[in-house]
Amino acid sequence: MSTTLDSYGEETGTKDQLVTPWNQQIASGVELLRNPRYNKGLAFTAEERQAHYLRGLLPPAIETQDIQVKRIMRNVRQYAEPLQKYEALMDLQERNERLFYKVLIENVEELLPIVYTPIEGDACEEYGEIFHRSGGLFISLNDKGHILDCLKNWPEKNVEAIVVTDGGRILGLGDLGCQGMGIPVGKLALYTALGGVRPSTTLPIQLDVGTNNQALLDDPFYIGLRQKRVTGQEYDDFIEEFMTAVKQAYGEKILVQFEDFANQNAFRFLAKYSKTHLVFNDDIQGTASVTLAGVLAALPITGGTLADHKFLFFGAGEAGTGIADLIAMEITKHGKISLDEARRKTWLFDTEGLVTKSRKGSLYDYKKPFAHDHEHIKDLVSAIKKLKPTVLIGTSTQGGSFTKEVLEAMAENHKSPIIMALSNPTKKAECTAEDCYKYTKGRALFASGSPFPAVTYDGKKYVIGEANNCYIFPGVAHGCIISGAIRVDAEMFLKAAETLAEFVTKEDLERKQLYPAFPNIRNISAKIAAAVAAAAYDLGLASKIPKPKDLLGLATSSMYSPSYCNYR
Ligand code: NAI
User: Fold this and answer.
1) How far is the centre of ligand 1, averaged over its atoms, from the C-alpha of 422 (Å)?
2) Which atom of ligand 1 is nearest to the CA of 468?
3) Average pLDDT of each block of 10 consecutive residues along the chain (568 residues)?
4) Which family does it belong to (predicted)?
5) Is the pTM of this model over 0.90?
6) Under 8 Å CB-to-CB from 166, ≥6 apart: which residues?
7) H or E stretch including 47?
8) DSSP E strands: which ranges in 166-239?
9) Residue ID of nearest Cα to ligand 1 atom 41
10) How far apart are CA 544 and CA 437, in angstroms?
């Protein structure tokens, strides 16, 4: 329970702990139309219009929510620019929350690239110009010593999930300072649309610790602090105050997802706070889980078990090392080998070449477990020829780096090598789907980080599965919430991956499609939530006891529904 609530669930004030005088009111008339949570626009019935002082405030037509969805989609489709579509959807979220989620859920495949990567990234770049409502909390260095007060100013009291960024490294776009807010807003919209987490329980937070992006500092429309990023102890103390305050405000079970922190900080904070808080990092763990799922799904075609494969990661940052780590854990879980032995099946390749023992002195800690005994190799093709990996995963941000020679070398190693070009956006993908099939003579199994059109090779049509993190994180969050988990364990991400892989059908595999179709994603999230919750109970990390008999039933029935309610 939150330390600032008394046994009646009311805030306790002391001389040092001040209370916000929140006031509850029933909205009616214009205020009701302006309240995004309760507004239904033209869907208010005649009785509701009479009872809630809406007569004359709306045109006479009374519409169903389905017609409203159609109208919104027609309007969104008319915009030529994706950023205009993004703005139209954000406006809708600010106007009519349930309609926004219904639109999103029913058109998930079409709208995902708008509210999530890649377009939300463009939106962050333009955030200063398109900013008109915060949509979450902005906590800056000016708030040092008052972070708990900031949290108390957020009007919702039952917050269960926070996505927080410091804008240090937004997608592939670098330091966007205070303009990273679009990312937590977008991620949490997917918590709701795909994972069924109630919007009133989600809180997007932007921490502003300055920016080293000179263009933003010089931009008259920049919305953040005009100073360079603080680092070292001052930065760590600020994060510590924040992490302490979230527990004070929302209790032990508050879920905090770290998002788009710069590489070193992401690993540091995950290691530090996973011991004391319910935290995960989607860039590291969500990516790892979705990628592992793709590899597991491919096994019926490649033959053998995970342990029979050898993995080479081109790019050894948050994504690459996170995936390598989780794959090694999965091998250990199902094989009779130690984590160290499993890690020896996974090799990293970074800007300096193959990560080897001889480089250990200059390596970041998170790469060290994968620094194996081997001569140092500087170029990728030679590494592939020497190590003979059967799985090649690109997380390097280097578009086109899986050249004809690289792909041909991979085709030498296995009848069906797995090749994943995960770098985003599309132009940064290590290779295209078409090149992958062409240079491996149609033998590879390919997956990507960005959407690719289907490829026809030698008369056969191959559909390209997208290793999209949104298969994983909404279900993981929902599972943590329904079980009242107090810590996130790697086992939950293993379970999430195994569950996702089970959704890939024989027909999908005939098309070499390593991920299931998107329209099924709410069912997938529910199943993942149930698996994650089961893991929480098995590991003794669940606080909602007794354990419900039917976790899948609970996960499904507790999902947020965007359908309108009737008002008395
Ligand atoms: P990061 O910045 O942490 O890591 C990038 C790594 O690539 C660094 O280790 C760097 O040394 C290495 N690298 C850069 N140039 C290289 C070169 N020429 N040769 C070899 N290595 C090189 O970034 P992060 O978070 O790991 O993301 C990497 C890429 O993966 C991004 O493009 C991102 O969009 C993508 N990604 C895709 C996901 C998905 O498909 N579900 C999820 C997360 C990330």
Assistant:
1) 8
2) 41
3) 59 73 86 96 97 97 98 97 92 95 95 84 74 83 96 93 93 86 92 96 97 95 95 98 96 96 94 97 97 98 96 96 97 93 97 95 93 96 98 96 98 97 91 97 96 94 96 98 98 98 97 94 97 98 97 97 94
4) Belongs to the malic enzymes family.
5) yes
6) 180, 206, 207, 208, 209, 260, 261, 262, 265
7) helix 46-51
8) 202-208
9) 468
10) 49
